[in-house]
């Protein structure tokens, strides 16, 4: 590795943008090539030792999962010199297969000479071998930079310190940012003398509350380049350390820099964190924001507002939610078909740490789908989380970072192939950097957060940031053969988000649904309850003076349509002789309180408050066609002829106003074509069915309103007479405010848990429900009512009430507030839908 020169606030005569300021002073990089070579020699020797310390079956497994297993440590590698020479050979072979590569005959001859000299040196000749290793590194650099994919001479990137809090959510709250950094351009990145240009050295903001000021003293995040390479977008925060108080000075805001003029414009403001901008093919900007509202379900005592996808025009106008998901989302990008790709945290009544992987949707937010990673068998068998997902040029695959849940967006690089069947483990993944374990899934989360923010050049070559110490990341060119070349390391602040500074092919513009595009924006998040935490500066009253409310949206139908072709089309086995007669639609309510289990909604850990929207018929051929409310998170249940859930989703979706969502089946294969049909499904030959309501008390689903009346009519009197019988009255008792009746019944009910670790526990483990073993069919309660001393014949409506309650995770409360009123049986609607 060679000296790197560093110039702050410079504008070179060769730049294509003449409006930049005059050159400023320069300073040298912080390390010489000899020292870097010595460090790498030690690192690769440590890699060899660590690999050989693994059990043989583990080494074999890693080789099967590696993108290029030949680049891994082999038995013939005596030390780092042998390893790097072999990896250079693999690189030469691969580049030689590309007809665009210039002749590398001279480099191949030099490699042969180095191998010959290495073979004559014993491993104990450490000094001589290390000197030869330095020469090999210089050869590797020349070979790596001869790659025809490196047909650009400028990179854009950020400098950015790691956040001060280790968590996938908290890392993007502005008050956890460490001040320092800027937006840079790297000139001549594939040379021995690259030059860093601070693009904001003399830029001042043109508008908004910071008009006339520089972006100084804060922190930068999430760089994005538009398709023509004319604008850079990024997030910046003043980084005020006001922990758990949201103010304009402690949150991220979006800015854009015009590369031709140097003009700097602020796009968003207010007491929200706005970050992760992504330019759509039509010019609009998708980004991540807390404006949807809601809180982390496993949070507390710290505050964790939920952030999800939003969209706005290129100038920051017409800002609105794009997603109605009730948990966090990250890192939107655009694939080659013009679809949005992003990471979504998705868990309904299941382990909180297993499902934050690849999702796709239309650019207007419609039809969010997961084709990878959402249903693991074991959370240790593949990455806990995948972030920074990007489509690879000339490929249907994606690159991503295998990242931790309780850490930041760094880890090991992987390649995702969503066209392969998902076995709940590694079938769709290949390891690009197999020497680095998956954080938290395979190794302590902190030490293995080594790679980050990959920008794919092909399936085997990527720009990224890297630091073996997981702290001071530099810009690197890496390949799947194990080679790494340092492009730039800032002496003071870590690097982030390398992007080739050139135009790129614009994907097709996918037509938006006009109804979805005009959907009404969400209401602001409600305040944290006074008895939970100090008020957060996100309340409507606190926000009014820093961010005016959006203009009224155009009127749009608040309904959408679902069409299921054949509900029996699935990857799992349905119970024998079970007919699916209906589909139940359940809305889940975003959490509006701060602490986990405050309130404790029911027996299930971190259970979501919810409401049953209704049921729709399923035809004899398994098809269904029905209307659902739009713009709210929902999940579906398949019901038998007694109205009991046979299968229940543990994932959420939502529909835009006017959308028609077509599903082939229920957890059907994503890689096999549906059987050919001679005629349309029966349900699609008629108009969509409106949802038939469930009994009063099902929306919101409330034990006092839905179930207590059944007990009062059929059970309370008998239990009052029997001294040994447990009581079933409505008196609130205990720390949660649950009634005596609920305390008596919940041990016999059916409930699934959210939270860390529940995937491996029984009952209620796994990442999918087991058909026939959910809700009323999976509980002991109905069996006790139909036999034994509690045998009672319930009228159909009362039996239905118990079934709906059991199928709804046997919750007590239907909302997160006004608990005493709910316990008295009063109707309390959710604050946020």
Q: How many separate structural domains? A: 3
Level-1 CATH class name of the largest domain: Mainly Beta
Share of residues in strands: 15-25%
- Give the radius of gyration: 29 Å
Fraction of residues in helix: 10-25%
CATH superfamily of the largest domain: TolB, C-terminal domain
**Sheet having the most strands:** 8 strands, antiparallel
Mean pLDDT: 90
* Structure annotation, total helices: 15
The rounded distance between the terminal residues' Cα atoms is: 55 Å
Q: Identify the overall geometry.
A: globular
Tell me which CATH architecture of the largest domain applies here: 6 Propeller
- CATH fold-type name of the largest domain: Neuraminidase
Low-confidence stretches: 1-32, 519-556
Structural class: alpha+beta
The beta-strand count equals 32
